[in-house]
Amino acid sequence: MAYSSPENMRLAATMFAFAAIPKFCEVHSPGYDLYDLSFGIIPTEHHLHKHISSYPTFHNSPEASLSSHPHESSRDFGAQQQDLFQSQCLYEQTKAVNVLLDCWPCDSVPRRALECLSSARYDKPNLTATLEKLYSNCYHNHRLKIYLDQVQSVLDEARQTLTPPVNSKQPYAFTPSNSTVVSVVTTVLTEHLFKKPAPVITLLSDPITHPESPVSLTDNYSGGRRDSTLLKHVISFLRSRPSSDKFGRQYAEDLDDSRTNLDNEQSPISPSPIPTVDTLQHHLARCNELYSNTLRSLEEHLAPSDVTEWSLFNSGQWPRITVSCSGFSPPCQ
Q1: Per-residue pLDDT band at 218 (split at 50, 70, 90)
Q2: Taking the C-alpha atoms of 141, 142, 147 and 148 in order, what is their torsion angle to the nearest 10 degrees?
Q3: Which range of residues forms the domain containing residue 231?
Q4: Are 106 and 254 contained in the same domain?
Q5: DSSP per residue over 273-302, as a string?
Q6: Do 16 and 151 fall into the same domain?
Q7: Do 20 and 115 meet the contact criterion of CB atoms below 8 Å apart?
Q8: Torsion of CA 73, 74, 79, 84, to 10 degrees
Q9: Do 136 and 20 fall within a single domain?
Q10: 19 and 125 fall within a common domain
C-alpha cells in the first residue's frame, strides 16, 4: 500500500525507519505518565507575573501598618498605602520572574526566586504550589519536545537515505528464464489425504480379566434364575447419560437384551462369572484410552508431513481436521 502511490513514499520511509533503524534504541522517552500541553513548554514572563500577582496579602504587609500624617484624609492615606504596596510587590515580582526565567529549564521552582518574595506581602504556600504545578508541567512538556525532536531527527536522516526521488526511474533489465517451469501443488483436497496408507492402530491386547475366586451359584442365582442386579446398575448408569451419547444408549439397550435373556434362562448350569463393576470400569478406561489414542494417530497421519505441505497448511490451503473426542466416564459408586 505504501509504495502504490508516490504520495505514500514518505509514509513508507517512516514506517520502515521505526521498524529497522537501530538508532531509535538510543532515543529514550521522558517516561512521565501525564503531559498537559495547555501549560506550554516554557513558563512565559506574562504567566509568571500573572500567577505571582494573584496571591498578594496586603493586611500582613508593612504598608498596612503605616501611620497617617496629620490632617491627611483616610482616603488619601489608603491610596498612598496601596501605591506603596503595589510598588514593592512589582519590585519583588520583577526580581522573582528574572530568577525564574534565568534558571529555566528545571523541574521545580528555584528557591532563590521564592526568597525574592516577602512572606508579609504574598501568600507564599499557595503561590509556591501554583508555581510548582506550572513548572513541573512545563518541564514535562519541555522534555517531551526534546524527545520528539530527536525522533524527528532520526526520521529525517532515514528519509534522506531511504526515499528515492519521486520522478526518478531506475533502469532495470528483465531476462526471461528458459528453464522448465515446475508445477507446484497449491491446494490439497480431502480425498488426497484419504489416499494415504492407513495408519497402524494397536488394539487392546488382553480381554477383561475375571475374578480369581469362583462365583457360587447361590450368589448368582435366585429361584433358578441368574441375579442381574449388578447388570441393571450398569444399564441404569448408561441410560442416564446425555441423549447425545448414542453409543452409550445403544450399549445400554444391548446389555438390557442380554439381561432379559439371562433372566429367561432356566438352566442351573453355572455360567462364566459376571464381571464386577470395578472390572468394567477398568475396561472402560482402557477403551477410552484406545479411542483417544486412535483419534490422535489419525490426526497426526492426516497432518502435513514435509516442508511443502506445511507451507500449504500455513497458507490456509490444507483441509481442516477437527478432532472431537467424547468418551465415557466411569459410573459413580
Answers
A1: very low
A2: 70
A3: 227-266
A4: no
A5: PPPPHHHHHHHHHHHHHHHHHHHHHHHHHH
A6: yes
A7: no
A8: 100
A9: yes
A10: yes
